[in-house]
Predict the 3D structure of the following.
Amino acid sequence: MERFILFSCNTQRFAMDITKVERIIEYIEPNPIPESSDYFLGVIQYNDKILPIINLGKRLYNVDNSYGVDDKVIVVMWKNNLLGLVVDEIFGIQGFDGNQIEDTSMDLNISTRYVKGFIKNEEEIIIVLDTDMMFNQEQENELFSSTEIKANAID
């Protein structure tokens, strides 16, 4: 049984492998970085390090969100670094059997590389995200250079 954290973004339910999640924190207004992508909200201080904060709704759907006290930041491992993803709501941690999970490698014609698969349950289909694949090389370079995140890599 695989365990995932379930959350919503832009009314869609998502899942992420729980082993990629370090912590869930309350939304804090980030310090903006000049000349950065519109989904890159800025940075906050987190455990004496700089944590880049990403507007997941803007990154995935190109939709601007207004943030409030109910919004959460999922601190995830991303390419051996930490990254904060702003989400609308956290539903909790849940385990799923292998027969409920469908991998995108099964000829589903899914072109989005960060969609790792789908979880099928009675109510809906949940998209499983692969955090390591969320950004192309140019976007990765922006995050690395704008925040000097490589200096804060997890050893």
